């Protein structure tokens, strides 16, 4: 199907094949390499999911132990990169911080031959949280943190660097689960951007930098931050109900609802909603979860728009003490697994991605000398 005015944004256009993920497929829903997202969220660790996406199979215990040790060993940041992160302004967008960090790392630790791609992917998976939290803590708290923690999980490592202590297990597990839910999602905008760059035979750091740039845009990433800002406007569910009705009358854009691919529900929302309720009880917050439910109800009743993965993820992160402006970068710390897997898949059967376009400009025109124009 050719893209035209009625199919803008390549809607409905199949742009390639993948073995990594199904999204909204009848009878399958959201799966990673054939495993249902609910099974993975309930039973797997994020490290197991990362291994599955990057290596093609679930790891044995021996393989998982070795993989965790490899990730732990790759968390440290070179001094030159720390210097760059300190130079990035305190008011920079955190997504720009990660884009800059990945690009600079590609200069001092180049991928080189593509035979190094798995090591490059694992290095990025290990050090992206370190980049983000080193920059955040340096500018927010004036400290240079040690990015080499003893936590076995990436989620525990993240929260440890953020709060200077080992997190409680409920918080670590909740963050771990959100990383699983965000790890992969087929040919979304950032993944496709990464595959387009990869198709030119560019390096992984360039492809990932481009993917981060695509995710930075508010139409792709950032809905969880917008959702947090939205629910923070209201003190009660009743106020939220009235407020959302007014926003709908004013035709305001309300982020965190609906999805380009799903038609009736986002399977990830069920998990995030459950965790939001559990964490609200854990921290003793009696307002944000009921307010979120009230907003969700109005959006469904009035517009038949369902909450997507980002909406309840906002309160999940908030309850763990994560600053709102770090929400979308957490997405990067997870999606690096899907991006890297797609980069390797693209390379395995590469062809330059160069779609055609329907020209809609003026017909052929005669040249007019400059003195005769106007």
- Proportion of helical residues: 55-70%
Which whole number gives the mean pLDDT? 93
Number of strands: 3
Q: How many helices? A: 16
N-to-C CA distance: 41 Å
Give a brief rundown of this model.
The protein is 57% helix and 3% strand.
Give the helix/strand layout:
Elements lengths: L20 E5 L3 E4 L2 E2 H7 L2 H10 L5 H13 L5 H9 L6 H15 L8 H25 L12 H10 L5 H14 L6 H11 L4 H13 L6 H9 L5 H13 L17 H17 L4 H16 L5 H11 L7 H22 L26
Antiparallel strand pairs: 1-2, 2-3
Helix pairs in contact: 1-8, 2-16, 3-6, 4-5, 4-6, 5-6, 5-10, 6-7, 6-16, 7-8, 8-13, 8-15, 8-16, 9-10, 9-16, 10-16, 11-15, 12-14, 13-15
Q: Mind explaining what this structure looks like?
A:
The chain is mostly helical and 374 residues long. Helices cover 57% and strands 3% of the residues. A three-stranded antiparallel sheet has the order 1-2-3. A hairpin with a 3-residue loop joins strand 1 (21-25) and strand 2. Helix 4 runs antiparallel to helix 5 (94-108), helix 4 (79-87) packs across helix 6 and helix 8 (169-182) runs antiparallel to helix 13. It starts with 20 loop residues before the first strand and ends in a 26-residue tail after the last helix. Residues 1-5 have low confidence and may be disordered.
